[in-house]
Amino acid sequence: MKPERLMDKGVSFVSDLIGNKRQTLLQESNDANKTIGTVVKVLRECYAKKSLGKVCNLSEHKSYRQLKSPEEMRLALECDTIPGPFLKQRSEEWFEMRKTTKVTGSVAHIALGLESLNKQKVFIESVLSNVPHPEPTEQQQRAMNKWFQT
Prior knowledge:
mainly alpha
């Protein structure tokens, strides 16, 4: 086959790939726009009914658990050790549990590879070699405190 003919086939192949990818991206974009449109419609309806913020009452959800103080939980469960899901956040026991927990809510996105695969690899290697989680930077701590206070 002549080089020009081979080049034409290569260009045609790349052009087809780009066209297919473009079509896929357009479809995904249309799907995303429909979803966003639905969310906006629901929010507008809630706003019009003045029910924004009253859409979901967590205490009515079947898996809702109100967290109690460690002392109350020990009495209720009649045990010395409180299971993790029942620990009240920011209690002394909660901080102790977080020291021995490999994946916490603060690093779950990294463990799942949602930030980057390289950071996921570094995180998994640190967990497997028992390297402790780095302490948050001062800027991160300020941001967490600001979020927690609001």
